[in-house]
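Friendly challenge for the regulars: who can give me the structure tokens for this chain first? No prize, just bragging rights.
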Amino acid sequence: MGYSYFGPNALTGIRCCSDLTLPRYSGINNHALRAVSYFVGGLVDVSASARRGLHTRTLQMLEPVLIPAYQPGLALLKLVRRLSAEPVSAVIIVDDGSGPGYQSLFEELRLLPRVHLVRHAINLGKGAALKTGINYALCKFPEACGLVTADADGQHAPEDILAVAAKLKESPGALILGTRQFSGTVPLRSHLGNILTRGIFRRLVGEPLADTQTGLRGIPGALLPAFLPLSSTSYDFELDMLLTAKEQSVPILQQPIRTIYGSRNISSHFNPLIDSMKIYLVLLRFSSVSLVTALIDNVVFLAVWITFRG
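First reply, four minutes later:
Bragging rights claimed.
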């Protein structure tokens, strides 16, 4: 196959969230088609198209996919192989200090088409890895409409990742959550944790979300810079993302996905005690700020009322 990748300025008329269409070709060799693909920009399998005599092809490139990974298993390799065969503009993998024993796996991932590998020298946490990947995406793909995040432990099916990416393309101004249905065999800690967190979130924020802890998300480009200054660095970062979206008045849409847990979820690095405490501290901080803000508003109102009454 002959692939050509080109930057955002290859053709001024093309913008993010658009379709790339190859016009009708007849009797044109592969070199000519590659030249056309260079002019149009994007990632097009022009040689295969020529060999099959394809007359018209519309290729809709999806936004980059970001996967933070700490000591991943072979499920990550299987997932990225599948994604690299799909019309995803890039797959960004952040190695969150996995150590020397995992370098061969990351090297194999790095060699796959359109894969970008970023590394942490030490383990900094999932939130820190997500922020590193977000910063990389903003610098490397400024023309993208947004970014899709997914987990490295095999809990997200490629089809569901692509569905979230497609929904982000349809609604580039919204935050898309891939919401699990929690049917079938689900670890008790995951099921109870999600019920508790989404219940508290709904009471404090007023947003009825089915899955507040999902790692599969489609993030609009305008919201990405707001995540970088957040202080959270672990699993609490994902809850901080939701609160930031609400503060920025970004609508939240939900895309149903499958619930996948394998081998009793042993590949997860979530610490039920420590990480749960961090998540609830984020909610406590948010509620405290809301209470203080409400108190200040009432004090100011009372002061103005007393002033004008006197």
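Residues 1-15, 18-58 have pLDDT under 50 and may be disordered. The chain has two domains: 1-61, 65-287. Your move, everyone else.
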